Amino acid sequence: MDSIDVLVIGGGIAGASAGFAIAANRGVVVLEREDAPGYHTSGRSAAQYAQGFEPAVVRRLAIASRGFLSNPPSGFAQAPLLSPRGSLVVGRVGQEIALATEVAEAQADGVDERLVDAAEARSLVPALVADDLAGGVLEPGAMDLDVGALLGGFVRGLRAQGGRLVTDAEVIGLDRRDGLWLATTRAGTFAAPIVVNAAGAWADVLARMAGVAPLGLVPKRRTAFLFDPPAEFDTGRWPLTGDLDSTWYIKPEPDRVMGSLADETPSAPCDAQPEELDVAQAIANIEAATALRVRRLQRRWAGLRTFAPDLQPLNGFDPKAEGFYWLAGQGGYGMLTAPAMARAAAALIEGRDLPPEMRALGLSTDALSAGRLRESTSRAD
Ligand SMILES: Cc1cc2nc3c(=O)[nH]c(=O)nc-3n(C[C@H](O)[C@H](O)[C@H](O)COP(=O)(O)OP(=O)(O)OC[C@H]3O[C@@H](n4cnc5c(N)ncnc54)[C@H](O)[C@@H]3O)c2cc1C
Fold first, then answer.
1. 335 pocket-lining for ligand 1 (C-beta < 6 Å)
2. Quick check: 116 and 184 in contact, CB under 8 A?
3. 334 within ligand 1 shell (Cβ under 6 A)
4. Whose CA is nearest to atom 3 of ligand 1?
5. What's the DSSP call for residue 128?
6. Closest ligand 1 atom, CA of 40?
7. 67 φ, ψ to 5°?
8. Cβ 18 vs Cβ 196: under 8 Å
9. Is 62 in the pocket of ligand 1 (CB under 6 A)?
10. For the domain 2-50+147-216+310-377, what is the CATH code?
11. 2-50+147-216+310-377 and 87-140+218-307 in the same fold
12. For 33, which of 41, 170, 288, 349 could close a Cys bridge (C-beta 3.0–4.6 Å)?
């Protein structure tokens, strides 16, 4: 049996980043069921860094992550993790107040967001259909995020500090005995006084396995695909563009465009697959809102974005289960918040407060705690 200080369950971006941060001062092992890290949601994202259109806590975590993503530790990645893209969310006539409210809220948190009128929106993305277009919200500083490099950097950094990532190590039993959590896996048994639940869509499943009451996390499927770039437009410099109602978005990539339905269909935890109907609906929505025509799909996929009932992430010890730490519910923001979420987890696990720069942004342990959800989810069912 392997004994360490902290056991992290889940080798997606949450578990890898937490393992990296915890390994600075503690012995840590990350256990992943699949044969490689990032197989599930972390390998299926839109790879965007943005601060707008997020719940306030997420926005502040995004802001707190920006320094790391812009300037990671030496040797973390071979190339910049962020590259310029921008983001544009367009609204219909009648949605002007909603657009303005978003800008006011984001600007109050220091986010560089501004309103654009229909003409400017169309100058940025000439394929936008003019009918009914009121304008949009532009975040010029939104970025493309190299998620492969981010995940790879966390895993390399974890190992460089003496931590371990064990793949093909599905946790099939998790019990508390004599002050230790014992995790039974095909790769052996691991013991630690603290276990970090970074199991993504399976976070509530893992809690139940440990005899800990679940928190009501809901995985929601999102559908995405890549299509050939249109011959009639040069999409290279377009921002990631979507609509305020969240019925579609597109993101230009080299030699292709990513599209999504922006769907949020509740799902059981699973290896999510795209539904034909969702792909067809996404294409119909993109073709209705823009002059783009989706002629050939290069690839399609789906992933699960997992949300707590109040849509805020979880980063804290369970108040009723000694040594059981929740790092879950990252929803659609797990990549862009990973550096700050990991730094916060390492501090709290070591018994410290949140880092001062996070507190200065208005983040608090209460807002991230599992305890905030306990009242409504106290039954272990
Ligand atoms: C289409 C789409 C677009 C997105 N776009 C963005 C974006 O632009 N920006 C952004 O920041 N975020 C985005 N997201 C969200 C982001 O991808 C997630 O928030 C993030 O990947 C969640 O990471 P995770 O580590 O919690 O989950 P996962 O990556 O799913 O990792 C959890 C891991 O736990 C493992 N596991 C579960 N149970 C066990 C067990 N019993 N034993 C061992 N291992 C176990 C699983 O195998 C899995 O690898 C997007 C998501 C989707 C689907």
1. yes
2. no
3. yes
4. 45
5. B
6. 30
7. -60, -45
8. yes
9. no
10. 3.50.50.60
11. no
12. 170
Structure tokens at 32: 């992943």
Q: Are 84 and 139 in contact (CB under 8 A)?
A: no
The CB of 200 under 6 Å from ligand 1? The reply is yes
The number of the ligand 1 atom at minimal distance from the alpha carbon of 201 is: 30
With a 6 Å cutoff on the Cβ, whether 85 touches ligand 1 is no
- In this prediction, residues 342-346 reach a mean pLDDT of 98
Question: Predicted confidence band at 380 (pLDDT cuts at 50, 70, 90)?
Answer: very low
CA distances from 363 to 64, 243, 273 (A): 10, 29, 35
Q: Say what the pLDDT of residue 376 is.
A: 56
Is residue 264 within 6 Å of ligand 1 at its C-beta? no
Pick the CATH number of 87-140+218-307 from 3.30.1950.10, 3.40.50.300, 1.10.3720.10, 3.30.9.10: 3.30.9.10
Residue the block writes with tokens 């490689």: 36
Q: From residue 44, how far is each of 40, 126, 260, 334 by CA, in Å?
A: 7, 28, 12, 11
How does pLDDT run across 64-83, given as a tens digit for each residue? Answer: 999 999 999 999 999 999 99
Element (H, E) at 47: none
Q: What is the pLDDT of residue 374?
A: 82
Q: What are the tens digits of pLDDT across the range 44-59?
A: 999 999 999 889 999 9
At 377 the pLDDT is: 52
Mean pLDDT of 302-314: 97
Q: From atom 27 of ligand 1, which residue's Cα is the shortest distance away?
A: 200
Q: 330, 14 in Cβ contact below 8 A?
A: yes
Minimum-distance ligand 1 atom for the alpha carbon of 224: 1
Query: Could you tell me the distance, in angstroms and rounded to a whole number, from the CA of residue 179 to the centre of ligand 1?
Result: 29
Q: Is the pLDDT reported for residue 260 higher than 70?
A: yes
For residue 381, the model assigns a pLDDT of 40
User: What pLDDT does 2 receive?
Assistant: 76
Q: Given pLDDT bands bounded at 50, 70 and 90, which one contains residue 274? A: very high
Which atom in ligand 1 lies closest to the alpha carbon of residue 301? 1
Query: Three-class SS string for 65-85?
Result: HHHHHHCCCCCCCCCCCEEEC
pTM: 0.97
> Which amino acid residue places its CA nearest to atom 51 of ligand 1?
45
